Amino acid sequence: MLFPPRIVSVLLPQPLPEPFDYELPEGVEAPPGSFVVGPLVPREVIGVVWGERTVPSNRKLKPVLEVIAQAPLLPANMRTFIERAAKYVCAPVGNLLAMAMRSREALDEPPVELLVVASGQTPERMTPAREKVLAEAGAPLSGADLARAAGVSSGVVKGLLDAGALTHVERSLDPPFPLPDPERPPRDLTGEQKEAAGYLRDMVRDNTYRAALLDGVTGSGKTEVYFEAIAEALRRDPDAQVLVLLPEIALTQAVTSRFEDRFGVVPAEWHSAAGSAARRRVWREVAAGRARIVVGARSALFLPYRKLRLIIVDEEHDQSYKQEEGVIYHARDLAVLRASIEQCAIILASATPSLETMANAQQGKYSHLKLSARPGVAQLPSIARADMRHAPTDTNRWIGPDLAAAITQTLAAKEQALLFLNRRGYAPLVLCRACGERLKAPDSDSWLVEHRYSGKLVCHLTGYTMDKPLVCPHCGAKGSLTGVGPGVERLAEEVHTRFHGARVEVLSSDTVTSPDALRELITRMENGAIDILIGTQIVAKGHNFPTLTLVGVVDADAGLRGGDLRAGERTFQLLLQVAGRAGRADKPGRAIIQTYAPDSPAIALLAAGDRDAFIAYEMDQRRLVGFPPYGRLGAIILSAPSAEQANECAAAFSAAQPNASGVEVWGPAPAPITVLRGRHRRRFLVRSDRNVDLSAFLAAWKERVKLPSNVRVALDVEPYSFM
Ligand code: ADP
User: pLDDT of 234-256, one tens digit each?
Assistant: First the structure.
């Protein structure tokens, strides 16, 4: 009797909305989660078995070519997460699988090196050289190292291998991560820290999905507190894994050394800057369940944990959790989804929680734990506004009199100052004084930024770079191009001329380009080898500089000018975070905030130190218009090679809009960045009530429009960028 062929559905890491069916050859086993090779004309692709089919297909199916036997199974929870995340962010499920398969090498045979050790046999013929080698051959060494240690030629080692006196052993090139020890003594926690830690320990012990907001002022010891939750997860279950998400790679260094203090080992680190060998090791060890603590950037959420018991999203409000390229997703939202699928605990930590998280806490969906003070003698910094409307204007000077006086005092007291300006380069705009032309990149609608250290003009959206022209490309005037406004490089120029002898450094992604260089600069700042640090938002987050007592915000209004939905919230968070760098040890700190809008709610309430009033104000504003967290938002971004085509497609989209109640659509409108990399962009903004499945609405809408293949559509659920 002929059995019908067995059929498996295989998801491929490609922009595909669903798995493909393949025939499973006789005698081959491939349970769900297996990595297999399947033909996908014109290539062969590695995918994952997603399910088995019992209903035979009436088509002739291609066969599974190979089952990758040495690869682990992709766990069922991970597959569920991939599916549900794809639905939520409106992306093809294959694209989410691709994110989970970032380390292609992890599926190969584990790489090993061949070492030699003594076998215990004595060779028939013994020579002095052979004796020396056998005396050294205790621990496994490479043949070359052994020969070197014994001071003999490699021929002697080979001879001993042939004679059977030495033997080969394999050692993995991906050694397991050492086990963290939860029983090492923690710090003496303060009363409120103890209370929060106790609550979180209980939450972890519950062994089910529970979420908590750890809402503590900057420097209140949130890290110390969540360490206790991690210790509890590790203690309870010898296989438990813990994921700690951080918004910036720049922060991992400082945090990993704190992990080492608390748990005796550095955790597994995962981020895009890690090399492929490091990624392979982490992926494999996570899949094997041996990496117990993983610290990483947002993509660490897509690792194949076997037994995830706790997720921590540190600085949960941070915008870097939103990925804007490729699959557009918010790692905080997906972390909550993942925790609910894994039925594990999740802690969202911040001094300035996002309104979304605050709303969840207010509605009781998340427990709300508060830390109101810094431990010991450290005090929260005072925050003062410097009203620039009344400051004498001095061209090419951006430090007003209040801030300048404070810098002078700080230097005299041998303390450190941090000047915050969220603009990279020398000048954010290059203008022709003859014709008024503002220089733009040839293929994009964004201004070119002047960089003096590198001598280039740079488009910060696309990375396009050119030399600064000698004549205006528009009117041909000579020497008329001039940089307008300050960037950090220009601010450094002003600081050098006004504060002679001060040791000044600039920290931005252009000046510090490698993790090592960053570590070195942070260490010098910690050790007091820098007097004035000038930085972009990299300096705002997480760092602890004991003698930093003054934070100067050069242009507090910068983030308010864009005026998008979150401008106020973002400004408030960023400025409170940066102010929070001051006075973290025994010396009191202060922040001076230069502003032309001292009465805007974000700035006024920041200076009043009234975060809760600011949140209440913002919540009211959002409630009035039904914006998040009181409603949902989505964006559709179309882009086409020409403006005409962009308009036609936008019209086609408009015409296809599905009927739905509780949904409002604005647009199409030219995107603020109308041309990007030569593509013309149109946007729709969609608002819905909270009870509407906006993801499904957007996906259904897109499904109804057939567009030419050169037109791209990006769907953005809960957009953060409106450009
Ligand atoms: P946050 O994450 O809330 O900004 P951290 O956990 O980084 O705060 O703590 C800020 C500083 O205070 C760190 O240097 C930390 O080691 C220290 N610290 C926190 N709690 C205590 C404590 N109970 N005793 C002594 N030092 C503490």
Answer: 999 999 999 999 987 766 777 88
Same domain, 355 and 278: yes
pLDDT at 1 over 60: no
Provide mean pLDDT across the span 616-635. Answer: 94
Distance 224 CA to ligand 1 centre (A): 6
Kindly tell me if the per-residue pLDDT of 608 is higher than 50.
Answer: yes
Pairing of strands 367-371, 210-216: parallel
Instruction: Mark whether 494 and 596 lie in a shared domain.
Output: yes
Give nearest CA residue, ligand 1 atom 14.
544
According to DSSP, residue 249 is labeled G
Protein residue with its CA nearest to atom 15 in ligand 1? 221
Same domain, 579 and 549: yes
Separation between Cα atoms, residue 584 and residue 646, nearest integer Å:
52
Does residue 35 sit in the same domain as residue 139? no
Predicted local confidence at residue 2, as pLDDT: 57
3-state secondary structure 472-509: CCCCCCECCEEEECCCHHHHHHHHHHHCCCCCEEEECC
The minimum-distance atom of ligand 1 relative to the CA of 374 is 12
Residues 6+ apart with CB under 8 A from 209: 339, 340, 342, 343, 344, 345, 346
Ligand 1 binding site (Cβ under 6 Å of any ligand atom): 187-190, 193, 216, 218-224, 375-376, 544
